[in-house]
Each structure stands twice: as C-alpha cells, then as structure tokens.
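Quick review question:
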C-alpha cells in the first residue's frame, strides 16, 4: 500500500449526546457530572461492550461509537434508551436524556480516530433526533428491518449541514414493549406523541429603517434563548433557523427541513420609544395557526413582551413549565434599556459578515459601554469574550491573551462577577 494512503473501512457509527447539557451544567454542574458518570458505568458502557462496540471518543456531552454490525448498533441504542427511560421514571428534575443517531457508511481511520461522511451523517441524525429517541439513515434502516424487533417510521428527507444531498431519516420507535409484542406476534402498542419542537425564524424588520435590523434579530435570539430554558421543548439553534433570514419559504418546508413540529415567525416595528411586535405560531405539518398576537409597548417593556411570547408559545404547545423554568424565563437580564440596546448592536457586529480590526474595535466599544451602564448585566461580558477570541485568532490588536484580559478587566475586578447566561449561537 502506498505511503500516506488513507485506511478505509465500512462501519456502523453511533453518535449520541445529552439533551440540554448546558442547562443541566448551569443548574448543577457537580450533580450532572456525577449522574452522567453513573449512567455510563451502569447503562451506556456495558451495553456498548456487550454488543461489541468501540467508544472512539467522548466529547463532554456526547460520544462517538463504532460497531462492526448495524444490527448490534441499533440493538444497543434501543437497549440504552429503554434503560434510560426506566431510570428517568423516578429521576424527576434530575432526568438525563440522550439523542442517538446511527449510520452505516465508509469511514476513514487514523489511529484510534475515525472521519468521513459516514461519521458526519451519524452526527447530523443525532442532532435531529428527539430526546430519548434513535434516528437512523436509510442504509441502516434497510439492514436492520426484520432483523431487530422494532418499529421504524420514515420521517422524510432532510437537508443537513455539510452534506451535499438530503438524507432520508428514519425514527426507531424506542419502546421495549414493541420487542415483547413482536415476539408474541401481537400488535404494537400505541406510539407515544412526538416531543414538541420549534424553530424561531428571524423576525422581519418593518420599521422602514435598515439600521433597526439588529434590534429585530436580537428579539428573535432572546426568544430562542428563553425557549431553550424549557426542558420539555426542543428548540432549533440560531445558526440553523437564521439560514432562512430574508427568504420567502413555505413553513411546511421549514418544518420538514429542520425536523420541527412548529415554527414561530413575526415582525417588529420600532419608532422612537415605542415598539410593535407581531408573532404567530404555526403548525409545521399542516401550515395552520396555533396562536397569534400583537404587542404595542414602550421599549422599557421589551423583556415583559418576550416573557409573554415565550409563555404563550409554551401554553399553545401544551408544555408544562416547572417552577424553576418559569423563574428562569421571568428573569430580567438588565433594567437598563440603553445597555441592552448597546449589547444588541455589539452582538450584531460580532456575528456580522465583516471581520476586521475596525469591526473588532467597534464590538469592544459597544460591549464596554453596556457594561459601564450596568456592571451586573452578564451578556456584554459574553460578547467581549467572543470578540477577544476573534482578536486572538486574527491578531488584529497585536496584544497577548493576558494583556487583553488585564487591560479589559482592570476596572471591573472589584465588582461582583455576574452569572453567565446561556446565549444560543
């Protein structure tokens, strides 16, 4: 074999991650890590080993596993999810759920690691899966059908990141009652309902002022962040939903491409200190309205409006809020509207198309002004961290990591360190 030639083989790849890992860690870091360790020792690792799987790598909230047989991979996944469901029955707020994606494909092997589209597709399937669910590719479904006593649902084609063609997604109905019923020749039990899921599209700026675009995007992102605090609701990340910005597209297409049950869209008109927000929640399958409302408020009430929109969505989707979730949604990040406006301007610049020294300096100036107005407002600190990370990567300022920190935080060290918010990127 020629030197440097890639070593390839066919394998079944299982990708798994913990649902809401950031939220769990924010709530109870030590307890979450301890529970994950126990679940690995008692459920996950033994199942993988018993089905001849190899854990390729662990990634904090996830794992990549290789199997020689897709039958073994799917059997292990179903076994893990069934045992996780039994474990979570008495776990209450401490429940930990997994998403699992499985694909069969050609992989590139380098040492103990694996790469290639075979791996990437498994990761994309995992991201689409529901909490406690197993999503598999068409190739995997064809090979396990009639070999494993499970029910497989065709969820349609999905366009996913970095994969040239849409992939056909199949959902394994994870319920050990199915296996027992199949063995007895009985009809399968009724299927559990799908977990509510939502994509928040960028709100349309109808202010007649293109410079207000940052404000409309900021409101959309804040609603995404608030909805992400609800454990019983799957929320598509900003980077995925914002790909539809400026496009006229059928909501049913959005639902199919992102794999969600509902979509929120709306518009914002800002004039002086007044703002009008319209929002409508749409069933992504039928294209019908589930809820719609309009809010005419002062800018000082903007967080109240976001709170109301979030609660109306949760109520329309029949998701029950825990007291802790309700309190997190109601938390006001700042009472200084000018500081919030500066943060939104800085955030737009941070993730805008321009990546230059000038844009970096503008971001730092905006976030710094916001902090000066409200030192306890956490999100501008997050913005500064991202800005300095970009500077470190691009060497715009020519300063070292330690110089940046000492120059930026010198005036803040005596102040109370604010809690770190969960900003969805």
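Suggested answer, residue by residue:
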């Amino acid at each position: 074999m020629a030197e440097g030639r890639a070593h390839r083989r066919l394998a079944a790849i299982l990708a798994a991650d913990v649902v809401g890992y950031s939220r769990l860690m924010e709530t109870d870091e030590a307890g979450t890590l301890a529970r994950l360790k126990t679940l690995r020792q008692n459920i996950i690792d033994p199942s993988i080993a018993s089905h001849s799987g190899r854990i390729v790598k662990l990634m904090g909230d996830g794992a990549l596993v290789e199997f020689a047989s897709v039958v073994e991979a799917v059997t292990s996944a179903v076994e893990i999810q069934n045992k996780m469901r039994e474990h979570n029955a008495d776990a209450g707020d401490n429940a930990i759920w997994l998403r699992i994606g499985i694909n069969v494909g050609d992989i590139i092997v380098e040492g103990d690691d694996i790469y290639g589209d075979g791996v990437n597709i498994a990761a994309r399937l995992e991201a689409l899966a529901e909490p406690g669910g197993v999503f598999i590719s068409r190739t995997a479904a064809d090979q396990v059908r009639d070999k494993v006593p499970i029910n497989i649902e065709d969820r349609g084609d999905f366009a996913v990141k970095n994969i040239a063609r849409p992939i056909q997604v199949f959902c394994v109905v994870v319920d050990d009652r199915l296996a027992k019923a199949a063995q007895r020749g009985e009809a399968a039990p009724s299927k559990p309902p799908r977990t509510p899921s939502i994509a928040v599209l960028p709100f349309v700026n109808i202010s007649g002022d293109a410079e207000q675009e940052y404000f409309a995007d900021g409101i959309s992102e804040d609603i995404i962040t608030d909805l992400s605090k609800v454990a019983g609701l799957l929320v598509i990340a900003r980077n995925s939903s914002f790909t539809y910005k400026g496009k006229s597209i059928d909501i049913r297409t959005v639902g199919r491409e992102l794999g969600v049950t509902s979509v929120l869209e709306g518009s914002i008109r800002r004039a002086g200190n007044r703002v009008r927000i319209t929002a409508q929640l749409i069933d992504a399958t039928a294209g019908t309205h589930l809820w719609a409302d309009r809010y005419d408020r002062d800018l000082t009430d903007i967080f109240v409006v976001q709170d109301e929109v979030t609660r109306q969505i949760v109520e329309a989707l029949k998701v029950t809020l825990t007291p802790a979730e309700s309190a997190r949604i109601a938390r006001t990040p700042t009472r200084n509207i000018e500081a919030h406006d500066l943060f939104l301007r800085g955030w737009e610049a941070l993730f805008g198309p321009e990546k230059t020294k000038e844009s970096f300096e503008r971001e730092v100036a905006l976030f710094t002004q916001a902090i000066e107005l409200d030192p306890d407002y956490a999100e501008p600190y997050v913005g500064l961290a991202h800005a300095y990370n970009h500077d470190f990567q691009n060497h715009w300022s020519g300063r070292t990591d330690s110089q940046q920190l000492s120059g930026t935080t010198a005036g803040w060290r005596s102040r109370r360190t604010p809690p770190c918010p969960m900003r969805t990127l």
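Why it works: The chain has three domains: 7-184, 197-330, 337-409. The longest strand covers residues 98-110.
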